[in-house]
UniProtKB/TrEMBL annotation:
<protein>
    <recommendedName>
        <fullName>DUF7867 domain-containing protein</fullName>
    </recommendedName>
</protein>
<dbReference type="Pfam" id="PF25269">
    <property type="entry name" value="DUF7867"/>
</dbReference>
<dbReference type="InterPro" id="IPR057189">
    <property type="entry name" value="DUF7867"/>
</dbReference>
<feature type="domain" description="DUF7867">
    <location>
        <begin position="357"/>
        <end position="483"/>
    </location>
</feature>
<feature type="region of interest" description="Disordered">
    <location>
        <begin position="328"/>
        <end position="356"/>
    </location>
</feature>
<feature type="compositionally biased region" description="Gly residues">
    <location>
        <begin position="332"/>
        <end position="346"/>
    </location>
</feature>
<feature type="domain" description="DUF7867">
    <location>
        <begin position="171"/>
        <end position="326"/>
    </location>
</feature>
<feature type="compositionally biased region" description="Low complexity">
    <location>
        <begin position="347"/>
        <end position="356"/>
    </location>
</feature>
Amino acid sequence: MTHKKHLISEFLRDEDGGATGWNLAWFAVLAAGSGFAIDVSNARNAKEHLTVTAEAASHAGLVALMNTGSTGDARAAAIASVQQNYPSDVFGPVIADSTSDIVVANYNAEESSWSDSGMANAVGVTLRRDESTKNGVSTFLLNWVGLEEWTFSASAATAMAGTQRCSNTEGLFAQGNIQLRSHNGFGTGICLHSDEYVTMSNHNVFDDGAYVSMPDLSLCEKCDDDDKNPGIVDAAYETKYIMPDIADWIEQTELSFMGSGDSAIKDAFFEGRALDRDLSSLSELDYDTRYLERGSVVEISATEFYLMEDVPEGLTYNVSCAVSATSTGTSNGNGRGKSNGNGNGNGKNKSSSDVTSVSSLDFSNAPLKDLAVITDCPVDFSSEADLLGVMIVTSSDSGISGSSGTTIGASNYSCDPLDRVTIMTNADVHMAAKFLATNLTLVIDGAIHLASGGSGNSDHYGVGIHTSGDIDVTTHHNYYSCGNSNTEVAPVMGVIRHVSAD
């Protein structure tokens, strides 16, 4: 017995082979740590890959949205991008519901908020490896302690936001070139942007806070000489903005007001405006006004429109020079009768054969306030035109014009955004000498030529001119800012930004 105790004691004191046991213990610890690290690393890499994929998908969706204006195209482009960068046959599905996980909506940059109302300008994408897709990331060692998979999601959003430097209501924005002659002035907050280049003669003045931009500043003639054009050196900078297709913008605006397109532009225009309580001038033309609502479309000939000495507010007038006076009176507004829009007709046929046919609009018959005019008529503004808070879209090849001394825009010289006048045409525009504009947006699928402002200068306040062609400004025009922010009814010079998806 004593011998056995001695052997046991010797064995316990013997250190031979002890390192092996110790190493085995440390190996187990290190193996566990390595396995945990592998699981964590796999999860982190998968999350990063998913995040980058969501960012790329939101960007692809936004580009499609800007190109076509279609939410369906935006969503399809985002899905295609996900499939390209995170193929489901390799990684499994990561979109649970394409409608809720890929959001195409309006993003308000000032409030950092999302809304289904307003024009869609952003795409948000959420990708999931969780219970909703039944596609978690499997674990290795952690599976032994009951954690079979990691679950997570990744979100990203991309928006086309207006520039923080320039408002689309204040300046000259050409997809062609901008040519400035001499003796023109540009105040603080006024932006000039050409998608091609800017040229100028001498004696143009740029106040501090005025900006002149183009993709390649080296193409700007006389942008480097403050002596010849005071302020130009600080005003000029190089940039490339995203500019929407002007022809498409005008078409979408017309469709919006007529009730056959996205209502966002029409809704934005009529927000804050009300239907006139006095509709008697329409009743006198035998229109049934009982079912009219704000924004309702009244189809009317140019002749009958000209007959009205009081044009009710809060409506959309589809004024036609192409139809005879005897075919007027139907409507696609919100009333009852014949319809091809977002409502039903509100009138009946009326003969006006005793009235001389009107083949163009000069808006001299009555003051126009808080209404929209969609027309196929040429527009030649009379010096008696009195406009306030009006939208005019003409599809005539003759476009718009104005005689010498014509004032277009808010007739009371107000800078109130609700008083702003917006005019759109798909033809070139030539404005005669001494043309004045206040609180005015011009959207032109073509070029514009502004004749001399005269020796006394033409002072314009809060004017935004958007063209698909060139802008030619002769002499003696001064542009000053109203200080208004972007309007949804005019094209926006955009930049792509990653924004909060929440």
